[in-house]
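Chapter review. Work through the record for BAH domain-containing protein before attempting the end-of-chapter questions.
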Amino acid sequence: MAPPKRKHSTHFTASKRRKVAQKSDVVSDKDTPTPEEWNAMKSFKRFQVLQQDDRHTFTLGDAVLVLPPTGEPGDASMTDDDFWIARILDIRAPIQEPTDSWDQPVWAKVQWFYKPEDLVGKIKGLKRGAYGSKERIASNHEDLVHFSSCEDIVQMHAYSEISSKNSRPTIIDTDAFYYRQTYDVLTNTLTPLPKTCLPKCRKGYNPDTNTMRVCPSASCARAFHVSCLQDSATSSSIADSPNSSRTLVGSSPKQKLKQKGNEKKIPNELQTLALLPMLKGGPHGVVGNVPFVRAALAILRDVRSGTRTVDPDWQEKLNLPDGVEVQDLVDAAAEYESAECPSCGATM
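Structure tokens for BAH domain-containing protein:
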């Protein structure tokens, strides 16, 4: 018979006192609860920390900035990149009920996100240059962290480079953290990244420095370095090819974007967006215009198959970043010519 699930209580508030993070392979803390002490504690859904006039609420599942042993509380010179980052899995304290005069330690069980440089030398062939500055590596490394080490909440996105008809890449802000891989501390292994670019290319994808072209075919969706495609790119410009034979998302290679009877019902701006080359990395951002072009292609596919009409507010439903318009995406892609996918032959 399975043991009963532990019930979570309400949150409580505490004043913040300095206590550095644990991270077991770096620094030990004699006050860290033993497994027996941890199991005897009461579980909570969240806790609040008071720092002078600021109140921070930390909740189960949050990605949080954790003060490292070398950091000082209130150090204004520290940026988010200077902190450790972890995901809160559980929150417990050795009390029965929260009170206004609470003066007991609160501990959070966390799962660490590694900086890529932390694993250089541990993982064969791993190079820091293959990762973006905001990129971290998830792990199954768990520790108990004192509540006072938690500084703030941050955005941490799981970014999958694999796209399909029913999945669109997460939109990642320029100041948000993200991860593509997971590190298993027990086997000292990393989950692999999807194959990128041409067979002879070994550069991988660094979102900060590499500009990539992505195949629009859902069955392929492979990404290629722009520099690797320059020699094989076709000479016709996307702007000069309004009737491009680009494959529809989720369709067979034989289904193309062709003129049909309901063509007048489709806004020109939507068609232009659907025909843009899919770009990501470098000045285009981690995921670039890929989620928006895929969304436009999906709308066209459904409209031309008769399963839907174009919503008047289709642009709003694209969820473009604040201050970004469709025309901005068009302008950013203007310099790129159409090319044939070296993997499947679709027009990119």
